[in-house]
Amino acid sequence: MTEIRHFAPSEIEAESFRIITEELGDRQIDPALAPILKRVIHTTADFDYADNLYFSENAVPLALKALKGGATIVTDTQMALAGINKRTAARFGCEAVCYMSDPDVAEQAKAQSVTRASVSMDKAVSLGENVIFAIGNAPTALIRLREHIDAGYRPKLIIGVPVGFVNVVPSKELITESPVPCIVARGRKGGSNVAAAIVNALLYELDVTRGGTR
After folding, report:
1. What residues are annotated to the active site?
2. CA distance 204 to 212
3. For residue 24, what are the contacts with CB-CB under 8 A and spacing of at least 6?
4. What are the distances in angstroms from CA 132 to CA 1, 24, 145?
5. Alpha-carbon span 99 to 106, nearest angstrom
6. Is residue 41 part of a domain?
7. Cβ burial, residue 37 (10 Å; 0-12/13-18/19+)
8. Domain of 139: which CATH number?
């Protein structure tokens, strides 16, 4: 009979991270990136992210600075929004929002024959540049953001991790080629859970420095 080990609820996450660290073995990982990589692996049980998660130069310290400065976190799905730790975000004056279900976004998308994700990015741009985008589903959101970037828009960070097939890979490359700091899951893998995991990993790292709890 298969043996089941019993852990207290408070021990489960710690044991998961111990296993992840053990299975990563001797792989050399930048200490600044390790908490994010490990949390994404913890969320997905997929060690491919140790290879395909791309960080632009200084992306993590710039993201931490933005969160400490109360950046607005914009997602492209309600699922990603639900997965973000709002209590921790609020400690830094950060708000997480998603405009995908807004009636004006749906109406405008229908009128223009474009995706709601694309229109929701237009709405988010109106917030200004103190914004972190967490895109886990819609390549069209990344494509539209690149158009805004080409027009001079400079958000604090783009987390680009859509999952799927149609335009997923090239939309991510558009972001890695841009001048905006980014964390991107190259290839087809990703998802709303990955986007939320990256945001949470950043928030938890910032929280540790101030002795907070989740």
Report:
1. 42
2. 9
3. 38, 47, 50
4. 48, 29, 12
5. 9
6. no
7. buried
8. 3.40.50.10230
Q: Which helix (H) or strand (E) holds 130?
A: none
Residue 148, domain member (yes or no):
yes
- The CB density around residue 20, as the number of other CB atoms within 10 Å, is 19
Residue 170 within a domain? yes
Bridge-based pairing state of the strands 72-75 and 131-135? parallel
Whether pLDDT at 209 is above 80:
no
Residue 24 lies inside a defined structural domain of this protein:
no
Give how many domains the chain has, as a whole number: 1
Of 5-14, 25-34, 61-70, 112-121, which gets the smallest average pLDDT? 5-14
pTM of structure: 0.95
Cα distances (Å, whole numbers) of residue 61 to 75, 77, 204, 210: 20, 25, 13, 15
The pairing of strands 72-75 and 96-98 is: parallel
Q: Please name which of 64, 79, 16, 65 lies closest in space to residue 201, comparing C-alpha atoms.
A: 64
Contact predicate 198/183, CB 8 Å: yes
Q: Which domain holds residue 150?
A: 52-209
Contact in structure between 73 and 199 (CB atoms under 8 Å): yes
Q: What is the Cα–Cα distance from 65 to 35, expressed in whole angstroms?
A: 16
Residue the block writes with tokens 């799927």: 164
**C-alpha–C-alpha distance, residues 68 and 157, integer Å:** 13
